[in-house]
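Here is one chain, start to finish.
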Amino acid sequence: MEYDLTILEQKLTESSDDIQELVSSPETLAAVESIAQKHGVNEDGGLALIDIVTHTLLGLLDPKDIVSRVSADLGVEKGAAKTIAEELYKELFSLVEASLSSRYTLTQTLFATMFPSDTTGVPTFPAMPAAPKPPITVQTPPPAPTTPVPQTPAQMPPTNMFEEKLKRVFTVPREESRVASTPTTPNALTPPTAPRSAGSDPYRESLH
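Its structure:
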């Protein structure tokens, strides 16, 4: 169905920012052309596909009618039309799904609205592999510093009685080791010496 340019401009003005950006982006046109070439759609079919995308984004084509519209305008079977519509959803419509759901007041997801026969309600695109989780490392806190205990050098036991005797001698207090060299009492075995008179000659006395 053809719409007047004035109507299209008015619908574009009433659209949300993300829809306006998607309609005016050259990447949108490139994506539609890529899908058309992938499925062998001719030039007229490519132009019809552009109209389908534009009308859907501007609120002029209900999402539940996209598959039948693709099949009629491109002249393809229902299965091929559904495949093309799925790629349109993946590349374009899913980018503004919240805005389209609000614009058409959908009671279910956009995908389920476009493909009511699909009970899963989930696109059939391969899921992206999950990113590997980084290994979990457990950091052990360093041990608390310990205060070194001073060690008392071990005393080696004496190897013989001689060493033990020397040990006792050198450990006696200095005051106790002082012993008087002269006895306090006269020796009883030594007779007393008689005093000598002045001027006496011991040699002369022995002659008498």
